[in-house]
Structure formats: structure tokens, C-alpha cells
């Protein structure tokens, strides 16, 4: 249920300042606020404006506003780089796949912004000293890189060249630190709520309504001798191997020990155990074997059966019928499973609730994305 919050911003490789900013931008996550407070300007949908507002195209293009806070194309690109880390791969992704990835990225960014806003609304926020420390860590990282490259770049200069500022950086670092704190608080709440909900009576009611889920399927104790044939072999090789398999079966029918012949002739991993495959249930074996043993009883020898891997001779040692597990047998793990399910449901309902009351505004041309992110 815990969501990953860190976004890695995507920067163009032909811009030196962007490359440098990449060193610290892995902490600049989520939507940018209506910020650049020094301009006193609101986000303008799709309109080219002064630096510090929003560019109509490129990384500063407004994609969506969440309660007045803008999510820009740079954040979407960053999230795409997380979904498929190497930029050149997702740039080559098929149109339909990239469209779906973009929708998923926008949905995730919207949810992260809403969670952050909810945290702030109830008074949960990262301590200022921790935010200051994170900013200083990034400042020092830029200093070290600038020293290696023999430039005079600073954190402020790099932000300015990318039409960003310290308010933007501080906002995103605060969000990066705050969201996990709030998620832990909500996780604890949902866990407590789920614990209260999933009582013994609740679990027993679920058990009674879904008893077919708690049936131990029939199991078969099986021995095997396999004579391997390369799938690309000529027909005469297959015929020769089949003949040998039939000869081995005849020896078994005359009373020779299956385990001894398995150790002598079988070439699969069970040979050293006398061909003992242990107890298996239908669906856990290849279809050819499943079908062959369906009507075999304990003591029966079947085959040779042809498969992709060669010829198989089989012997059923025992069949254990399907059994219904009692509620007491499954109670503990059933309650754990129901509790996890309840926690997820409570989280989804909570997230749906804050989405429904949010003002999520898309510019023109984003109608389809809006539909897919409700």
C-alpha cells in the first residue's frame, strides 16, 4: 500500500546546466506549486509567459492543476523515467504503450500531490531543519561537481537557468519528506481499523461463503522414468527412444523394481531418487502427464507418453482425495489475508474521497487524460 514518492526529473542532455541539475534533481519530486512567488503570477494554461511562470511548451508546460497547484511536463517526464528508467527506451515505446504510461504517470503525480496537501491540511509536515539539511546536501553536491568540471556553477544558478527557484526546490523537498511521514500515519490508522473489522466472526462468515477456496486438491504420489529426446531430433530417433521406453515398461509389468530401472535409465532430476516425484496435484505437471494419470489408480503403470522432452513412463503409488480444510485450519492466515485486503480497501476509499473533493483542472487538449484519471 505504501507508495513510492521520489521522482527523478528528466533533463535534456544537450544542456549543460540541466545535466548538472540532474545531480540533485532526484529529490525534486511531484508537482510544482503556483510558485515563483516573486512574480505573483498564477499558472496560465498553455500560455507562454515570463520566466518563473509557465512555458506553453516543453518542460514547463502545464499538464494539470490540483487544487490550484500545477503539475508540469517536467514532472510527467520524470515519472516516465521512473517507469522505464532509460529515456531512450520509453521514447521508443509504442504510441499506445507510451500513452498508457503517461496516463499512469499523471495519475500518480495527482495522487501524490493530494496526499501532500492532505498532510499539510492536518498539520503534518517535515521539520524545517531537515528540509534545510537536504537543501544543503544538494548545494554541496553541486559545489563538488562544479569543482571537478572547473565551472562557477551554484545551486541557485542552475535553478535559475532552468526557470526554477529556491521556493520550488524547497516545496518539492518538503513534499518528498512529508509524504512518507503522512503515509506511515495513515497506514497505522488503516491497520488499526482493519484489525477491528476483521474479527473471528467476520473471518468465519467469509469462510462459509467461500468454502471452495479452502479445499486441499487431490494429490498423487508419482514415479517417473523419462527418456530424453531433443525436440529437434529426426523421427527415427523418436521411434528408437519409444521402442526402448516400451521395452522398459514391459520389464516393469513383469515385476521389476521401478526405482531400480529409474536410476538406470531415467535422465531427469528424479532419477537419483528412483524416479520419485513426490505428491503432486493436477495442474502442477505438464498437460500430457496430467491427462495420462487422470484415470490411473494406485499401483498402475502408464505410458510411454510422448512430450516435448521425450518419453515418460509413470507409476501411481497413492492418490489422496481432495479434502475440505476446517475454519480452524485456515483461521490465522485467512485473517491476515482479510486484514491486508481491508487495509487496501480503506486506503483506496480514502484516496477516492480526497480525489472527489479536489479541484482537478486540465487545460484544453487534456480531456482524454482527465477521463482516465478520475
Task: Provide the fold topology.
Elements: H1 16-21, E1 62-66, E2 69-72, H2 73-83, H3 87-91, H4 95-121, H5 128-149, H6 155-161, H7 166-197, H8 200-209, E3 215-216, E4 219-228, H9 235-253, H10 258-265, E5 276-281, H11 287-293, E6 301-307, E7 310-320, E8 323-324, H12 327-356, E9 360-361, H13 367-372
Helix pairs in contact: 2-4, 4-7, 5-7, 7-12, 8-12
Characterization of this structure:
Helix 5 crosses helix 7 (166-197), helix 7 runs antiparallel to helix 12 and helix 8 crosses helix 12. The chain folds into 2 domains: 16-185 and 352-372, Triger factor/SurA peptide-binding fold (Orthogonal Bundle); 218-321, Chitinase A, domain 3 (Roll). The chain is 51% helix and 13% strand. It has a 4-stranded antiparallel beta sheet. A 3-stranded antiparallel beta sheet has the order 2-1-9. With 374 residues, the chain is an alpha+beta fold.
Produce a short descriptive summary.
This protein is of the alpha+beta class and 374 residues long.
Number of helices: 13
Number of strands: 9
pLDDT averaged residue by residue? 82
CA-based shape = elongated
The main β sheet shows up as: 4 strands, antiparallel
CATH class of the largest domain: Mainly Alpha
Content-based structural category: alpha+beta
Strand order of the largest sheet: 5-4-7-6
CATH topology of the largest domain: Triger factor/SurA peptide-binding fold
Architecture (CATH level 2) name of the largest domain: Orthogonal Bundle
> Helix fraction?
40-55%
Tally of separate domains: 2
Helix/strand order, N-terminal first: HEEHHHHHHHEEHHEHEEEHEH
Cα-to-Cα separation, first versus last residue: 19 Å
Name the poorly predicted regions. Answer: 1-55
- Rg, alpha carbons: 32 Å
- Strand residues, percent: 5-15%
Amino acid at each position: 500500500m505504501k507508495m513510492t514518492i521520489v521522482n527523478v526529473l528528466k533533463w535534456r542532455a544537450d544542456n549543460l546546466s540541466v545535466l548538472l541539475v540532474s545531480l540533485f534533481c532526484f529529490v525534486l519530486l511531484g508537482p510544482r506549486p503556483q510558485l515563483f512567488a516573486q512574480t505573483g503570477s498564477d499558472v496560465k494554461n498553455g500560455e507562454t509567459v515570463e520566466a518563473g511562470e509557465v512555458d506553453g511548451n516543453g518542460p514547463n508546460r502545464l499538464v494539470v492543476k490540483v487544487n490550484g497547484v500545477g503539475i508540469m511536463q517536467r514532472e510527467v517526464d520524470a515519472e516516465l523515467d521512473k517507469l522505464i528508467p532509460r529515456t531512450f527506451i520509453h521514447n521508443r515505446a509504442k504510441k499506445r504503450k507510451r500513452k498508457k504510461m503517461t496516463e499512469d504517470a499523471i495519475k500518480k503525480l495527482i495522487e501524490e500531490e493530494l496526499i501532500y496537501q492532505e498532510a499539510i491540511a492536518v498539520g503534518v509536515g517535515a521539520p524545517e531543519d531537515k528540509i534545510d539539511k537536504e537543501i544543503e546536501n544538494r548545494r554541496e553536491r553541486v559545489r563538488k561537481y562544479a569543482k571537478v568540471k572547473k565551472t562557477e556553477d551554484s545551486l541557485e544558478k542552475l535553478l535559475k537557468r532552468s526557470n526554477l527557484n529556491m521556493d520550488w526546490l524547497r516545496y518539492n523537498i518538503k513534499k518528498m519528506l512529508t509524504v512518507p511521514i503522512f503515509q506511515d500515519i495513515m497506514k497505522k490508522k488503516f491497520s488499526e481499523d482493519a484489525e477491528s473489522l476483521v474479527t473471528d466472526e467476520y473471518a468465519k462468515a467469509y469462510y462459509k461463503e467461500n468454502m471452495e477456496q479452502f479445499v486441499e486438491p487431490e494429490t498423487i504420489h508419482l514415479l517417473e522414468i523419462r527418456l530424453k529426446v531433443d525436440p529437434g531430433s529426426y523421427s527415427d530417433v523418436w521411434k528408437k527412444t519409444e521402442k526402448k521406453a516400451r521395452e522398459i515398461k514391459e520389464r516393469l509389468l513383469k515385476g521389476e523394481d521401478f526405482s531400480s530401472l529409474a536410476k538406470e535409465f531415467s535422465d531427469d532430476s528424479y532419477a537419483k531418487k528412483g524416479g520419485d516425484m513426490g505428491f503432486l496435484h493436477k495442474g502442477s505437471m505438464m498437460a500430457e502427464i496430467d491427462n495420462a494419470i487422470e484415470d490411473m489408480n494406485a499401483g498402475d503403470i502408464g505410458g510411454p507418453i510422448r512430450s516435448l522432452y521425450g518419453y515418460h513412463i509413470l507409476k501411481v503409488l497413492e492418490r489422496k482425495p481432495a479434502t475440505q480444510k476446517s475454519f480452524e485450519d485456515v483461521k490465522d492466515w485467512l485473517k491476515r489475508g482479510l486484514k491486508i485486503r481491508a487495509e487496501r480497501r480503506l486506503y483506496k476509499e480514502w484516496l477516492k474521497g480526497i480525489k472527489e473533493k479536489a479541484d482537478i483542472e486540465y487545460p484544453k487538449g487534456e480531456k482524454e487524460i482527465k477521463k482516465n484519471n478520475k
